[in-house]
Specification:
This protein has 605 residues and is α/β, with parallel strands linked by helices. It has 3 domains: 150 residues, tt1808, chain A; 101 residues; 303 residues, Rossmann fold (3-Layer(aba) Sandwich), CATH 3.40.50.150. It contains 18 helices and 23 strands. The longest helix is centred in the middle third of the chain and has 19 residues. The protein starts with a helix and ends with a helix.
Length: 605
């Protein structure tokens, strides 16, 4: 195994901004005292709790450390002549020590502003640069940056004036900027909030203020992120430039052509992930590339990516798309209850955005840290092989299946075993799509199946093949049902997938299945096929802020062997009133699930 590869996946890499501020303090360029930051070369100090000041401080340090501009030629809050009321440029770099000849004018905005606000800030930077007769104008809003040759700029063809970056130390304009292996110009790792903001900015660009449905915009973002990751992982030598970036004077159509070519390669290589073309305008893609081009998803550590993507998708999937997302507190609890090992085959037949699978992966990664702490290569293989070979998912909605695949790719693969398919269809059909899907195969199933929908015999011929798709009448004669609830059919399908004797499952079920007298036949089916290990009652509000208000429980079962007979046995029962968040989704410091987990482990012993 490539030694460098697994180290990159595991080590925590700090972001560039954090590094530069530390360097600035060490070298005496800046000092921080509480909420104040002082720029020692200028004698000026400002409120560092202002998010725009943080952006300015990081860019200021970059000017000195990356671009090699002398600190004595950099002015902050430079007064603009002939302006009433008074106006100041955030940062000005001069050609001379006397600060008489402006060279670069920089406008700083907080990370996460809208595209419209960014464009307005760009125009402000250009206006200031023209007044000061500076050849370059820069607008920086966190990781979104644009550099303009002031004299070439015009409203109708703005790309003719946009360059890849400011010159280094008054030098020449480069064609590309981001290249592999260069300490200054390689892509940088992100912290959680930076990544969330980058995702949100990119999604907002594609949503276009409502021009697209949010889920359609998310689907397009998933495609672009696939391209971004593919470009990062290409076999480049140190010093070679990345393709996912904007060249000097490059038109939007040219950027689209290059990115779309990479997407075409990905479609050919992995047609199950990439079924449709990119459906974005060149100008939209140009803006998204602007948001993402300097960032590295591959270098950002897995914990940061996991939490950031989960938080971003949790916000995104609330309400209308809530059926595709299970809150992390419930997912984490279910995974811990199952005690997953790295040789277990794990399935979620209603995987949505992939939460259960990713938490299973995280549990195995934590085991790797414990079991293989002195052997980096074995530690990497322990969880990476599990991700690639042992995680399986089925999702009926193709767009959401692509989100799950994207999630897996970001977490270092496993996406090839996620299929867009109806999990209630014949398993033989699934097997033709992916040979990993078979009856009696899986060690662990973790799932929150869709509730409430009806499967009609007139629309789905497979209904009559389910035992729970047939029912005996009063005379004892078995008849096919005209319709059946999806959650009831999912119970049978999940049991089909489990290994006899040892296979275990955690499933979210509506309480009606456990209590309604009319559903006794479902409970009888369960008792015949499985041993019920535990039932944990969840509060009414558990899924309410995701658009679902059905009272539910987590049910844990083990599939019996074919001839196994069980006498009376104990079942672990618990009621969770506090689950780490309240009915509105706000965090609750109380969480009964932690105590329940401990009690269940005692019960098992």
């Amino acid at each position: 195994m490539n030694d460098k590869k697994y180290k990159i996946q595991e080590e925590k890499i700090t972001t560039g901004g954090e590094d530069y501020l530390k360097i600035g303090e060490q070298k005496g360029y800046i000092s921080q005292d509480g909420n104040r930051i002082k720029y020692l070369a200028t004698g000026k100090s400002y409120n560092f709790s202002n998010p725009e000041e943080k952006v300015r401080a990081e860019y200021y340090m970059g000017l000195i450390e990356k671009y090699n501009y002398p600190k004595k030629r950099i002015e902050l809050e430079a007064e603009m002549p002939d302006r009433t009321p008074e106006r100041y440029a955030d940062v000005v770099v001069f050609r001379d020590d006397e600060r008489k000849k402006p060279y670069i004018v920089i406008e700083c905005k907080k990370d996460g502003i809208t595209d419209a606000e960014f464009e307005q800030a760009v125009k402000q930077a250009i206006a200031n640069a023209r007044i000061l007769k500076a050849p370059f104008a820069v607008c920086v809003a966190g990781n979104t940056r644009r550099v303009i040759e002031t004299e070439k700029w015009n409203d109708k063809e703005p790309e003719k004036s946009i360059i890849t970056d400011i010159p280094i130390s008054y030098g020449k304009i480069e064609e590309f900027r981001h290249k592999k292996g260069d300490s200054n110009w390689d892509l940088k790792a992100l912290d959680k909030q930076e990544l969330i903001r980058a995702l949100k900015k990119s999604h907002d660009t594609l949503w276009a203020g409502g021009k697209r449905n949010p889920t359609v915009a998310f689907d397009e973002l998933a495609k672009i992120i696939f391209v971004k990751i593919r470009d990062e992982k290409r076999g480049r030598k140190d010093g070679e430039y990345y393709d996912f970036q904007i060249k000097t004077h490059e038109k939007a159509e040219s950027v689209f052509k290059r990115i779309n070519a990479i997407y075409g390669e990905a479609k050919n290589k992995d047609p199950e992930v990439f079924k449709e073309d990119l459906k974005v305008e060149p100008e939209e893609l140009y803006t998204v590339v602007e948001h993402l081009q300097g960032l590295s998803l591959s270098k950002t550590d897995l914990d940061t990516k996991g939490v950031a993507f989960e938080q971003f998708m949790e916000d995104f999937f609330k309400g209308k798309s809530g059926q595709y997302f299970t809150p992390r507190e419930i997912v984490s609890f279910a995974v811990e209850m199952m005690s997953i090992k790295n040789d277990d085959l794990v399935l979620d037949p209603a995987c949505g955005s992939g939460g259960f699978l990713l938490h299973a992966l995280d549990a195995v990664r934590q085991q790797a840290e414990e079991y293989e702490k002195d052997n980096p290569e074995a530690r990497y293989s322990h969880w990476h092989d599990f991700a690639k070979n042992n995680l399986f998912g089925i999702e009926i909605n193709d767009s959401i299946a692509r989100v799950a695949k994207m999630n897996m790719i970001i977490h270092d693969d496993g996406h090839t075993n996620i299929i867009g398919f109806d999990a209630l269809e014949d398993i033989e059909k699934m097997n033709r799509k992916n040979t990993g899907f078979n009856k009696n195969r899986f060690d662990i199933i973790l799932t929150n199946p869709p509730f409430g929908a009806n499967v009609k015999a007139s629309e789905h011929l497979y209904l009559e093949k389910f035992e729970l798709g047939r029912k005996k009448d009063k005379a004892g004669k078995e008849k096919s049902m005209k319709n059946q609830k999806t959650e009831i059919l999912f119970i049978e399908r999940c049991i089909d997938f489990l290994k006899p004797d040892t296979g275990q499952m955690a499933i979210v079920l509506p309480d009606g299945i456990l209590t309604n007298s009319s559903l006794q036949y479902v409970r009888d089916f369960l008792m015949e096929k499985v041993q019920i290990l535990a039932v944990v009652s969840l509060p009414q509000f558990a899924f309410s802020h995701y658009g679902a208000g059905v009272k539910s429980s987590l049910v844990f079962i083990r599939k019996k062997d074919v001839l196994e007979k069980l006498g009376k046995y104990k079942i672990f029962m618990a009621i969770a009133e506090h689950i780490g968040y309240d009915a509105t989704g706000r965090k609750d410091i109380k969480n009964d699930l932690d105590k329940i987990l401990g009690e269940f482990r005692k019960f098992k012993q």
